[in-house]
Automatic annotation (TrEMBL), chain A:
Domain of life: Bacteria
Family as reported in the entry's similarity comment: Belongs to the CcmB/CycW/HelB family.
Keyword Transmembrane among UniProt keywords: yes
Broad class of where this protein is predominantly found: membrane
GO cellular component: plasma membrane
Protein topology in the membrane: Multi-pass membrane protein
Protein name: Heme exporter protein B
Protein species of origin: Kangsaoukella pontilimi
Parts of the chain that traverse the membrane: 12-37, 43-64, 99-119, 125-148, 155-173, 193-213
Keywords noted in UniProt: Cell inner membrane, Cell membrane, Cytochrome c-type biogenesis, Membrane, Transmembrane, Transmembrane helix, Transport
Compartments where located: Cell inner membrane
Task of the protein: Required for the export of heme to the periplasm for the biogenesis of c-type cytochromes.
Lineage: Bacteria, Pseudomonadati, Pseudomonadota, Alphaproteobacteria, Rhodobacterales
GO annotation (BP), single: cytochrome c biosynthetic process
Automatic annotation (TrEMBL), chain B:
Source species: Kangsaoukella pontilimi
Membrane topology note: Multi-pass membrane protein
Name listed for the protein in its UniProt record: Heme exporter protein C
Lineage: Bacteria, Pseudomonadati, Pseudomonadota, Alphaproteobacteria, Rhodobacterales
UniProt keyword terms in alphabetical order: Cell inner membrane, Cell membrane, Cytochrome c-type biogenesis, Membrane, Transmembrane, Transmembrane helix, Transport
Cytochrome c assembly protein domain ranges (all copies): 16-183
Pfam families, per database record: Cytochrom_C_asm
Function in brief: Required for the export of heme to the periplasm for the biogenesis of c-type cytochromes.
Record gene name: ccmC
TrEMBL record, chain C:
UniProt cross-references to InterPro entries, sorted A to Z: Haem_export_protD_CcmD
Domain of life: Bacteria
Family statement drawn from the similarity comment of this UniProt entry: Belongs to the CcmD/CycX/HelD family.
Keyword Transmembrane helix attributed: yes
Subcellular location: Cell inner membrane
GO process terms (BP): cytochrome complex assembly; heme transport
A family per Pfam: CcmD
Tagged with keyword S-adenosyl-L-methionine: no
Main location: membrane
Single GO cellular component term: plasma membrane
Function according to Swiss-Prot or TrEMBL: Required for the export of heme to the periplasm for the biogenesis of c-type cytochromes.
Record keywords, A-Z: Cell inner membrane, Cell membrane, Cytochrome c-type biogenesis, Membrane, Transmembrane, Transmembrane helix, Transport
Protein name (record): Heme exporter protein D
Length: 218, 242, 52
């Protein structure tokens, strides 16, 4: 399990692994938003939590199809499936690797990018917290979606269509926590629910993902 | 004789052959009666004017949009647990009808919302949930369309339907938390106080029954088509290999 | 025609749109059913001729 994790991490960091891609995409998105809605600081302040969350969500979507597709192409997925490691653990490990290479860097980058969007001072802490709690759910849901579409030749676009509706609850509670944090309305409630969603997906989706992988490898 | 006998495609075809026609006719009669009754012979609401007549389309389609998803969830479970092909095909057949119902509910709601709330669309919890439900239907149908092998497609879409149901429910509560709405509460509760008045209730009931029957007729017809398409696929494969 | 008052356009638009959508889904289902049935009958005939 640790071996798969380190192997995935090494593959991602090497050239063409898409490690920096998600971060660069996130940066560009945040830069583009003011061009779209104008440089008005008060307006940016209002939309900043939502934009940062949507940006992080889209950026983590970018590398989803690589979770299983590359392993499927070169046949290593079959090997991993026949290994003594349960498929459920494999799915969870893959999701963890995806989180470490996208979710975690995005979380760390978000407060810095928040400055560009004039995120109020009180928001930085809650933004980091909510992303830290919420992005594992994004990776886990994404791994499930990737497991569903692994056998398809053009799975990328379909994957986004399948996964994005599943992201709705995470996005709602995540962005709401930041907004409440800024306004001082007790962001603990949405954060707790967000943590519940993350733990729930971590507990259940490895089984659904492993089921989908078994069907696809049949 | 057990219910599972109908899972045999041959038996299913034989029975539904006799059911499809009559349910279409009955659905047509009920919907026509309900709509004509509602459109021509019910009074206008004292606040909403004639827009209240939209209820005869809005409520039944919204009910069906949700219930069709639940039916797909049940048939998906039956497929995953008991491997009856008819069940998986029924879920596939139901999805496009569900999408149509969701669209009708959203469309009539928008047209009704404009004069009543002054806007076609508001990010109200009920409206938003329906939009999300619409996206779930789209994803489900896209996954069916994308996979070539029918059994793989049935398995994967069933898993998606299961996971999607959990997330759809979760989204329902999430959007409730996120925004308080404009939409009124339930039109049809057992609580007499909350309920709409009898004048509107009977034609509405006819429309609801009609929509349910129309769905049954359509889903049986479409399932029959899917079974035939599957058989056609098998024959072409055999011809090619022969 | 009943008097729809100020909202005549909205009400008729809702009815027309909904009936159109229902019509489309019914028509598509029936058309596909007929097409599949026809091609299946042809294929069955071919198949039984060749093997019969």
């Amino acid at each position: 399990m640790i071996h798969i994790l380190t192997r995935d991490l090494r593959l991602a960091i090497r050239a063409g692994g898409g490690f920096g891609l998600a971060l660069a995409f996130f940066l560009i998105l945040v830069v583009l938003v003011p061009f779209g809605i104008g440089p008005d600081a008060t307006l940016l302040e209002i939309v900043a939590p939502g934009i940062l969350w949507v940006g992080a969500l889209l950026a983590s979507l970018l590398s989803l199809d690589r979770i299983f597709a590359t392993d499927h192409e070169d046949g290593s997925l079959e090997l991993l499936a026949t290994a003594p490691l349960p498929l459920e653990v494999l799915v969870a490990t893959k999701a963890a690797a995806h989180w470490l290479t996208t979710g975690l860097p995005l979380t760390l980058a978000a407060p810095v990018l928040g400055i560009l969007l004039n995120l109020p001072a009180g928001g930085h802490f809650w933004l980091t917290m909510s992303l830290l709690i919420g992005t594992p759910a994004l990776s886990m849901i994404g791994a499930f979606g990737a497991a569903l579409t692994v056998g398809l030749k053009r799975g990328g676009l379909l994957l986004s269509l399948l996964v994005l509706p599943l992201y709705v609850p995470t996005l709602i509670f995540g962005a709401d926590a930041v907004r409440r944090g800024i306004d001082g309305f007790g962001p603990q409630t949405p954060l707790t629910i967000l943590a519940g969603i993350t733990l729930g997906t971590l507990a259940l989706l490895p089984f659904a993902g492993a089921g989908a992988l078994r069907v696809n490898l049949r | 004789m057990s219910f599972w006998e109908y899972a045999n495609p041959r038996r299913f075809m034989a029975v539904t052959d006799r059911v499809v026609g009559p349910s279409f006719v009955l659905a047509g009669v009920l919907i026509t009666t309900g709509l004509i009754w509602g459109f021509f012979f019910t009074p206008d609401d004292f606040r909403q004017g004639s827009t209240v007549k939209i209820i005869y389309l809005h409520v039944p389609s919204a009910m069906m949009a949700i219930n069709i998803w639940i039916m797909m969830l049940v048939t998906s479970l039956v497929w995953l647990i008991r491997r009856h092909h008819v069940s998986a095909l029924a879920a596939k057949a139901a999805a496009p009808i569900g999408v149509t119902m969701t669209l009708i509910a959203l469309f009539t709601g928008a047209v009704w919302g404009q004069p009543m709330w002054g806007t076609y669309w508001a990010w109200d919890p009920r409206l938003t949930s329906f939009l999300i439900l619409f996206l779930f239907y789209l994803g489900y149908m896209a996954l069916w369309a994308a996979i070539e092998d029918p059994d793989t497609a049935a398995d994967l879409t069933s898993i998606l339907c299961l996971v999607g149901s959990v997330f759809a429910l979760l989204s329902r509560y999430a959007v409730n938390f996120w925004n308080q709405g404009l939409h009124q509460g339930a039109s049809l509760s057992l609580d007499k106080e909350e309920n709409i008045s009898d004048v509107f209730w009977f034609p509405l009931l006819a429309c609801i029954a009609g929509f349910i029957l129309l769905f049954i007729a359509l889903v049986l017809l479409r399932t029959r088509t899917e079974i035939r398409a599957r058989r056609l696929h098998a024959i072409t494969l055999r011809e090619r290999s022969a | 025609m009943p008097d729809l008052g100020a909202y005549a356009f909205e009400v008729s638009l809702a009815y027309a749109g909904s009936l159109l959508a229902l019509g489309i889904v019914i028509w598509a289902s029936v058309a596909r059913a007929a097409r599949v049935r026809r091609t299946l009958d042809e294929a069955e005939k071919r198949w039984s001729n060749k093997n019969g």
